[in-house]
Amino acid sequence: MGSFWIVLSTFFISSAYVSIKAMPVSMAFYEIFLLRSIVVLTVAICLVAATKTTLKTHEPALQLSRALCGVGALSINILVARHILLSTAQTLQYTGPLFLGLWVFGWYQFKGKKIPWMLFVFLIIGFAGVLLVLRPDVADQNALYVGLGLLSGALSSGSSISLRLLGLKGEPPIRTLFWFALACTLSGGAATLMFSTGLRAEHVFSVPVLLMGVFTALGQWTQNIGWKKGKTLLCASLQFSAVIFAVIFGYLFFDEVPDTFTFLGILIIVAASLGATIFRLKYYKEG
What pTM was computed for the model? Predict the structure, then answer.
């Protein structure tokens, strides 16, 4: 049953990105990020109140690391999703396992340990897929956003490392969610105050913004249920179903059809990221 909730969460998350892509072009990405963050913070506050979780953290450095990486990854991904194919943007967001594999690779090198060769193979295959997406004939502007998408994936891997360490240190997930949501809201608010010419009421209360809020909240809620009830390996694998939804939604709502090389690159990236995730989880379990 846990697997059902994970697939449902990827459906909602992909739907949230459809809403983001459908927003008026006059809205800046940091304005969208602020509105999204306010929704998540509201949900976090409700969860804190309902569970009576204390907000005092014993790991401020890790919370800060999680916040910085997470804010960077999410805000960049919103920017990227508005400028390139939805399927490509979603795929690049899920390159996190590849960068996480690079961290493991570097750590093993530093410690002088034997490097798991299967992980190395997955990394080579995954970044070969990236080269298919980011190939020489891609328009310069698209190449920029593909590069930013990769940066989002790299930051996402840093966020994952921080989350894992916070979990090992015994920090409650709701506390971590609150501080992350607060960091997102403050950074989005600061960017909006500095650069925005003013949020319009018709934008703030528009249907896409409302749907983004609803889908984001549902995505967070179902994801938490899925990871709590499901098996870790299966949940980690099923999270890549978000790419399938992104391909379908991109075609249905925006008439987006990836060319052959891009589609092949997407398949390779997803397969390699999935393989790296499964290998890493099994390796940790065995080792």
Answer: 0.83
